[in-house]
């Protein structure tokens, strides 16, 4: 099989636990791009949160693709042209934000350039700002402040409360939104129909690539659809059990150059 696109989740997949890309993995992905294979970063992060890894992999030079917000926004790496964006309207987002005030979660929203929160010292807020290299502004009320459409609402929640919260929090909006766990301490709310597979499907359409020609790497629940969509779906050694069960291959962990290990034997 001649693969034409490699889709990569970031945290727990491309990145080590120290949030670095190892030289071996970087070299393997540069070699793939030199062969004419397109690399797509496919992450729950906002767009600026993809730039560090984009530069490490020289994706502007090799015309890579950026799939942000779990598929909610698609851009070309070289000129940052937005090819697709799906969001939920401001008034509806305000309603959701008021609903979240009744739960033990810390909502974090963004306008594509900076984060907005009600408490800069809230659980995982500084972690999210650092991880995405984005500034953070504190406001008294997110619902009152909001005057733009949102692609997603991120919520941080204590891991021991996450599953209980997740089972209840989305019920009033289940016709319009999906609430998904994206880390042991994160829940994300997105418009229904947005997931990494849909983002990848649109990207493949734009590049005239078939799903069979896609190799995808992931580790978490929000990678499930993407791993199923790809012609060759790879679960990292550190991936959740659900992902390992449906993957075509389970490679080494994110701290053990799992991506490079797979590319060496498939390319």
Automatic annotation (TrEMBL):
A Pfam family assignment: Hydrolase_3
Highest rank taxon of the organism: Bacteria
A Gene Ontology cellular-component term: cytosol
GO molecular function, a single term: phosphatase activity
Keyword Hydrolase attributed: yes
CDD domains the record matches: HAD_Pase
PROSITE patterns: COF_2
Keyword annotations of the record: Hydrolase
Name recorded for this polypeptide: Hydrolase (HAD superfamily) in cluster with DUF1447
The organism's taxonomic lineage, starting at the top: Bacteria, Bacillati, Bacillota, Clostridia, Lachnospirales
């Amino acid at each position: 099989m001649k693969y034409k696109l490699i889709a990569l989740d970031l945290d727990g997949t491309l990145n080590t636990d120290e949030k670095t890309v190892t030289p071996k993995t970087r070299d393997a992905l540069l070699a793939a791009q030199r062969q004419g294979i397109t690399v797509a970063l496919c992450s729950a992060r906002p767009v600026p949160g993809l730039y560090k890894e984009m530069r490490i992999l020289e994706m502007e030079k090799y015309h890579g693709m950026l799939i942000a917000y779990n598929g909610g926004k698609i851009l070309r790496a070289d000129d940052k042209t937005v090819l697709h964006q799906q969001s939920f309207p401001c008034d509806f987002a305000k309603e959701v934000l008021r609903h979240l005030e009744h739960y033990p979660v810390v909502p974090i929203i963004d306008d594509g350039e900076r984060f907005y929160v009600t408490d800069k010292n809230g659980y995982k807020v500084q972690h999210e700002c650092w991880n995405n290299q984005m500034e953070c502004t504190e406001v008294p009320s997110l619902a009152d402040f909001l005057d733009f459409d949102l692609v997603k609402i991120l919520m941080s929640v204590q891991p021991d409360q996450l599953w209980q919260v997740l089972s209840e929090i989305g019920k009033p909006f289940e016709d319009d939104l999906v609430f998904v766990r994206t880390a042991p301490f994160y829940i994300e709310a997105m418009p229904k129909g947005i997931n990494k597979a849909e983002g990848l499907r649109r990207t493949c359409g734009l590049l005239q690539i078939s799903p069979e020609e896609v190799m995808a790497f992931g580790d978490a629940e929000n990678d499930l659809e993407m791993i199923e969509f790809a012609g060759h779906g790879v679960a990292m050694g550190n991936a959740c059990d659900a992902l390992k069960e449906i993957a075509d291959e389970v490679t080494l962990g994110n701290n053990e150059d799992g991506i490079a290990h797979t590319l060496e034997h498939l390319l």
